[in-house]
Write a structure and sequence with these properties.
By secondary structure, the protein is an alpha/beta fold. The chain has one domain: Glycosyl transferase family 29 (sialyltransferase cstii, chain A, Alpha-Beta Complex). It has 13 helices and 7 strands. The chain has a 7-stranded parallel β-sheet with strand order 5-4-3-2-1-6-7. α7 links the parallel β1 and β2.
């Protein structure tokens, strides 16, 4: 019995040893696979999106410490309006606040009275979210190019084009001014009165056109342009918009009214009773603060309100109109931009600027 027990114990040990060796080989193989996947993912993250990108981690850190100061909604909130969100019911405080904003405010801060128009317009857009070409960027280095005359003759074109994302405003042309303002356009914010009749003249095929809705007519205009209807609306615009607007609907988005609301009342802290709202430049900057990790500006600012000789824009001879002071608060915008620059949240390529109404 003792001999048989000894033999059984020896056989059991051999079997256990063989099993352990096989198990170790399997574990070693799994470990190699896991390590290989981790190394691949790490290398993929470290591959720069553009040649000048050096340190993605620094980029992420800057974005992380900026967010708490500006305040953000829940992670699944997006800066573009979607069909689903128009009828979005939620009991979380953040989403309920967004719902109330859309329901009880009229444009440009909400969709009270314009929900159906917005919904029917969104049905014409095959895509409503952020494009994958922007979403997949590991480090979004953005620049918002203002239309100030101060950028003219400065030769910032190549520096502007070196950014991941170039954001432009309204109908600002680039073709004849590329040495100063560059020629790449990733995102262009506009409204019907500021739309370019032929967008391809001063945009790329992949440019994302983002409509800032200020009134219900803006949705009607977009629908007429996309559907190419015969009976086109012309009444109710402060300036006649293009009667034809050839653009791919898949590269069109509608800005969420909260971006305009936040830019006006939370960033600039304007009083609601004054009935003023932020300029397109500040709205574009707020959009960039939501989607970009690093943010630069160039071409912001206005001539002195008493200056009747210096043009407002780099592309025309128009002078500063007194109407701008009725609609906007340029002093508040200057103060906010200076504060953002001093805190390191925004860098200005033209610092220091001699413009009295700009950064």
């Amino acid at each position: 019995m003792k001999l048989e027990g000894l033999l059984c114990s020896k056989l059991q040990c051999q079997f256990s040893f063989v099993s352990l060796r096989k198990l170790w080989k399997v574990l070693r193989l799994l470990l190699c696979v896991v390590l290989s996947v981790q190394v691949f993912q790490y290398c993929k993250k470290m591959v720069p999106d553009v040649p000048f990108e050096k340190d993605i981690n620094i980029c992420r850190k800057r974005f992380a410490w900026r967010s708490p100061i500006l305040g953000r909604f829940e992670p699944d909130w997006k800066p573009f309006l979607t069909s689903r969100e128009l009828f979005w019911q939620s009991y979380t405080p953040a989403k309920r606040q967004l719902n109330d904003l859309l329901r009880f405010h009229v444009l440009p801060f909400g969709l009270n009275g314009s929900v159906l128009l917005a919904f029917h317009t969104l049905q014409l857009l095959p895509q409503q979210e952020m494009p994958e070409s922007i979403e997949r960027l590991q480090c979004r280095r953005c620049i918002v190019v203002g239309n100030s005359y101060s950028i003219r003759g400065r030769g910032f074109g190549a520096m502007i084009d070196s950014h991941n994302i170039v954001i432009r405003l309204n109908n600002a042309p680039v073709k004849e001014h590329k040495e100063d303002v560059g020629e790449r356009t990733s995102i262009r914010l506009f409204f019907p009165e500021s739309a370019l009749p032929n967008p391809l003249d001063n945009n790329d095929n992949e440019t994302l056109m983002v409509l800032i809705p200020f009134k219900s007519l803006d949705f009607i205009w977009v629908r007429e342009m996309l559907l190419k209807t015969e009976n086109q609306t012309v009444e109710g615009f402060w300036r006649k918009p293009p009667s034809e607007w050839k653009w791919n609907a898949s590269r069109l988005r509608i800005l969420h009214p909260y971006i305009t609301y936040q830019a006006t009342y939370e960033l600039l802290q304007l009083e609601k009773k004054c009935k003023k709202y932020s300029t397109t430049g500040i709205i574009a900057l707020n959009l960039a603060l939501h989607i970009c990790h690093e943010l630069s500006i160039v071409g912001f600012g206005y001539p002195d309100r008493h200056d009747n000789t210096t043009p407002v824009h780099y592309y025309d001879t128009e002078h500063l109109s007194q109407e701008v002071f009725v609609t906007h608060n340029l002093t508040a915008e200057q103060a906010w931009l200076m504060k953002m620059r001093e805190r390191g949240m925004i860098s200005d390529l033209m610092h220091p600027s001699a413009w009295s109404w700009g950064p």
